[in-house]
Structure to design on (409 residues):
């Protein structure tokens, strides 16, 4: 942090950083991200039958208006029974792509690159929405109208006591899910998304294949590390195969299980190298989620606590990484780019709190002026409003750096 602080000089409440990396464009294959601020995928549990609702349009739209470079739409089920909850989005039929198209178009019209995370929830599917308990469904959920179904997983091992017992997937099930990922990737592209992220984290299906905690198979998709990586590889190969050569492909991993005898950071480095060779462009580095009860071995939470995973994978697998997890200040985001930990910075809850965080951060770094980068519907007014404020001895500048650095981080 000290290094970044030295690069900043405080001038009239604005930290002037001559060339903040956070606001430099980044080319990935044929796509140019306008800046390095990413909206982390965040389920809204507000879909109906896998279709987006007005909530999604407004929710995702606000991040484009706020200046994020890349907006990753939440975990979207490649099959109906691959949804985490009844309220999750889907891309298992063409109508869902049609319904997502206006959202992707709005993001593009407002300067963001639209991305979508494709997912299968595995043994964590058919669960409750967080605000109904975030656990296995109860009769109350079904009384509210939620469907329940038998989850699929590498092995018939429930997440925990009280959770649904999953079915161990057959060879045919694996082919069907692999093909569903590829078909959903084509639909995503047809809907106007310009980046696809495959969800291999948080205990969902593909992570549960990787981890020895949840994969006890005795066929070629289980056993040692090589075997456990095979099904995720076949999904990536199928997805890469249907995407054009200039189309970026991200993978989100849980860099560590955080459980004794689980998936480790060494495993993640090997996996990332192999994914790179298979045409993956960015590893989005999260952690945990492969149990209902995270243990004390998980990383201690603090600002940027998962960024060291992104740093090691970037250095040792020679692949672009995305850091995520309690990154809240522009200064920390910039530091992680400057010190080579990551190429992209994803924010989740901080953006729920303040969707205009990217525009505010750019102003704080002096990387924007006169509200030029704001939506034109706002910018013209804000520029004049700011001048009036200055004449009154006030400022529009939100203090989103020092305030959190000193008191909240
Ligand atoms: C409301 C909410 C929904 C989330 N849904 C997803 C998801 O769909 N896919 C995913 O990979 N992570 C999901 N996450 C995790 C976030 O992408 C992110 O990794 C996490 O919130 C940590 O970042 P933060 O500290 O900036 O919030 C979700 C987080 C939140 C708060």
């Amino acid at each position: 942090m000290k290094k970044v602080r030295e690069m900043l000089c405080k001038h009239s409440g604005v930290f002037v950083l001559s060339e903040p990396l956070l606001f430099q464009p980044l080319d990935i294959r044929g796509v140019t991200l306008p800046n390095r601020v990413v909206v982390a995928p965040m389920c809204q549990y507000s879909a109906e039958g896998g279709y987006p609702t007005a909530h999604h349009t407004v929710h995702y739209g606000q991040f484009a208006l706020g200046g994020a470079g890349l907006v990753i739409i939440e975990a979207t089920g490649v099959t109906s029974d691959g949804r985490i909850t009844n309220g999750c989005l889907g891309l298992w039929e063409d109508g869902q792509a049609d319904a997502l198209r206006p959202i992707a178009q709005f993001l593009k019209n407002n300067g963001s690159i639209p991305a979508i995370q494709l997912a299968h929830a595995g043994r964590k599917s058919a669960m409750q929405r967080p605000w109904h308990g975030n656990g296995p469904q109860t009769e109350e959920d079904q009384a509210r109208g939620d469907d329940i179904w038998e989850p699929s997983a590498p092995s018939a091992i429930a997440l925990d006591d009280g959770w649904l017992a999953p079915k161990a997937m057959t060879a045919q099930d694996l082919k069907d899910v692999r093909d569903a990922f590829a078909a959903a990737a084509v639909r995503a592209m047809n809907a106007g998304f310009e980046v696809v992220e495959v969800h291999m984290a948080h205990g969902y299906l593909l992570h549960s294949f990787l981890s020895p905690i949840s994969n006890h198979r005795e066929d070629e998709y289980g056993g040692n590390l090589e075997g456990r990586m095979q099904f995720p590889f076949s999904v990536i190969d199928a997805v890469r195969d249907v995407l054009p050569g200039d189309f970026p492909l991200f993978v989100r991993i849980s860099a560590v299980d955080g459980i004794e005898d689980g998936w480790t950071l060494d495993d993640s480095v090997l996996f990332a190298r192999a994914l790179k060779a298979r045409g993956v462009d960015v590893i989005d580095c999260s952690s945990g989620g492969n149990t209902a009860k995270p243990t004390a071995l998980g990383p201690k939470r603090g600002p940027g606590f998962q960024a060291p995973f992104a740093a090691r994978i970037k250095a040792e697998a020679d692949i672009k990484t995305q850091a995520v997890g309690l990154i809240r200040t522009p200064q920390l985001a910039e530091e992680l780019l400057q010190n080579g930990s990551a190429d992209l910075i994803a924010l989740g809850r901080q953006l729920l709190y303040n969707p205009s965080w990217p525009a505010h951060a750019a102003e704080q770094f002096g990387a924007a002026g006169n509200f030029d980068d704001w939506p034109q519907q706002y910018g013209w007014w804000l520029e004049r409003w700011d001048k009036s404020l200055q004449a009154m001895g006030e400022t529009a500048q939100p203090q989103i750096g020092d305030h959190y650095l000193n008191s909240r981080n």
User: Anything to note?
Assistant: The longest strand covers residues 70-77. The pocket of flavin mononucleotide is lined by residues 40-43, 74-75, 117, 199, 201-202, 252, 286, 324-327, 347-350 (CB under 6 Å). The chain has one domain: 2-408.
